[in-house]
Design brief:
Strand content: 15-25%
Largest sheet: 5 strands, mixed
Distance between the termini: 29 Å
Oligomer: single chain
Strand order of the largest sheet: 1-4-5-6-7
Helix content: 25-40%
Shape: globular
CATH architecture: 3-Layer(aba) Sandwich
Number of strands: 7
CATH topology: Restriction Endonuclease
Number of domains: 1
Order of helices and strands: HHEEEEEHEHEH
Structural class: alpha/beta
């Protein structure tokens, strides 16, 4: 089987297995992870946080090549109320290794000099742009 056939087969399996993806960007990230042979689960656990009992279901629960478990959240626009809730969920669940993959590094709001990367750095959250870095998968 050629590499193109293998990739096409894994992509077809991903589509059949996970039909509830919310965006094309999530689909792209998932396809790349599967082609690289990475074990991935989609939205398998709701993470609780407060105020007012709430939960956040992160996108991908990934097992790296060394067996480490990381959580990857894919984002396009990152609205202020979503940022607030997700930061609370991360702060209140320190046992999770949550990382963000953004479509691109853009300002957090129109006219702001603060970019997504600046915000994540300030909060101590690992982030990447365009896709999951191989370094994350090799940890």
């Amino acid at each position: 089987m050629t590499n193109n056939q293998t990739w096409a087969k894994k992509k077809a399996l991903a589509r059949a297995r996970i039909s509830k993806l919310k965006s094309g960007f999530e689909r792209t990230v998932l396809d790349v992870l599967l082609v690289k042979g990475i074990e991935v689960d989609y939205e398998v656990e709701a993470v609780p946080f407060t105020p007012a009992p709430k939960t956040k279901t992160f996108d991908f629960w990934v097992t790296t090549r060394t067996g480490k478990r990381i959580v990857i959240e894919c984002k396009g626009p990152w609205l202020p109320e979503v940022r607030r809730d997700e930061c609370l969920a991360i702060e209140q669940n320190p046992q999770l290794d949550v990382r963000y993959v953004f479509m691109r590094d853009q300002p957090i709001r129109r006219g702001s000099k603060t970019r997504y990367s600046d915000f994540c750095h300030k909060k101590g959250i690992l982030c990447a742009f365009g896709g999951v870095p191989d370094a994350w998968l090799d940890e």
